[in-house]
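tool_call: predict_structure(chain=1)
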Amino acid sequence: MRRIIWLLISVVWANCAQRAEPPFTLKEVGPNAWAAIDNPKAPMQAGANAGFVIGDDGVVVIDTFFSDAAAKRLLVAIQERTKLPVKYVINTHYHIDHVAGNAVFAKTGAAIFAQRHCDTHEAGQLYAARRQIDGFKSSSSA
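tool_result:
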C-alpha cells in the first residue's frame, strides 16, 4: 500500500512540475534575436527581462535574470535553438535582477562584460540580498 501511495504522489508531483509556469516567455524579435520576458504568473519568476542573439560562431546573452534557476532555464532555451556556445554575456547595469545568473554562463566559458563599476555595485547588492533573503550575516556582525 505504501508503494502505491508513493507512486501516486510521484505521478502528481511530476504532473504539477510539468504544468508549472515558466519563469519567462521567449519572443523572437528579429532574425536570431530573442527577448526573454519575465512571467509574473510564474512561481519562480525571472525577475527581469533578458535576451540573446545567435551569431555565426556563438551566442551573446544580454542580462542573466534574478536567479541561477532562471538563468539555467535561459541556457536550456538557447541550447534548444542552437548548438553554438554562449561566448559573451553583456550586463546592461548592476541591478541584481539583471546579473544574478552570470555564474551559470561563466561556468560554460562565457566572458562577462559590464561597465567597470558594476562589480562593486553587484557585490553590495548580492550581500544585501543574502541578508534579506537568507538571513546571511557578515563576520563583523556575528
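agent: The first strand starts at residue 24 and ends at 30. Proceeding to next step.
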